[in-house]
Amino acid sequence: MKALIASSYGPVDQLTVTDVTKPVPAAGQVLIKVRAASLNALDIRLTTGAFREQMPVEHPFHLGLDAAGTVEVVGEGVSRFTAGDEVVAFTYPFFGTVAEYALAGEGPNLVHRPKSLSPEAAAALPQAAMTAAAAHDAAQLKSGQSALVIGASGGVGSFLVQLAHRSGAQVLATGKPEDEAYLRRLGAVETIDYTGKDVVEEARRLRPDGVDVVIDLINAGPGLAATAAAARNAGLLVSTLGGAPGFERGVTVAYVGVDQGVGQLEDLVRRAAEGQLDVQVETFPFSRAVEAAQRFAGSHSRGKLVITF
């Protein structure tokens, strides 16, 4: 079978589509014939070596953790799935969904795909939507509260804006000018052009006392101190990337990742299938997988980038 791989740490343009051995599911695993797979920021960071200290990988490294497809073979002990089932999977700890076949373990991160949800939309959900759900849970937003979402037009951000809006929050969302209509359709009441304005200053202009919660999907480490200035006194900052244990003026912080979203994939898939969660995708055929990875790594993308088979 063919798979998108990195032979060593390096730039994305060194990725290749290569023949590899078709995996065989062990006990508790299923083999999926992939119909669609999506890329996430983690794939790029692991490819380039940006995360080699936190999360080293062995080479050749197979990209991808999100997939939608058809169960081909089930391993011993698998009880919820049979060959022919249409599924959605977050496959960690098994990398390699940008391939013709991929392994997934039976558990909360492997769910059935409803017929009303396309494979492309389904593949866009796992890592991004689960991370968004984790951030939304940490924010504990109540109806009428205000939230600033930094990185709102990307994969995680686009889902987060919708979840925050559905909780009754007043969402301020960052994006480019051409993203304004899209972000408002997702539920933002205000948009901030991060290319032409200082995000914190503009958020403070719109909410002079500060927002109740800042959810920052872009900045990490020392950069979060500036972001925290958009929060009200004793407000909350939620980050998916990590940083200081707290900030001035009593602003507290919660750090979350996809792990905190485990157990929510089935509900997120249901919401998307029922039209309660909008999924914006840009698709590339697998024959252009290297080009797709280059585009994802090098440009601002709205929603999710999905590779189809």
Automatic annotation (TrEMBL):
Q: Which InterPro entries match?
A: ADH-like_N, Chloroplast_QOR, ER, GroES-like_sf, NAD(P)-bd_dom_sf
Question: Which molecular function term from Gene Ontology is one that the record holds?
Answer: oxidoreductase activity
**What is a single Pfam family found in this protein's UniProt entry?**
ADH_N
Q: Which SUPFAM superfamilies match?
A: GroES-like, NAD(P)-binding Rossmann-fold domains
**Domain Enoyl reductase (ER): residue ranges:** 10-307
Record's PANTHER family? ZINC-TYPE ALCOHOL DEHYDROGENASE-LIKE PROTEIN C16A3.02C
Name of the protein in question: Enoyl reductase (ER) domain-containing protein
The organism encoding this protein is Streptomyces albireticuli
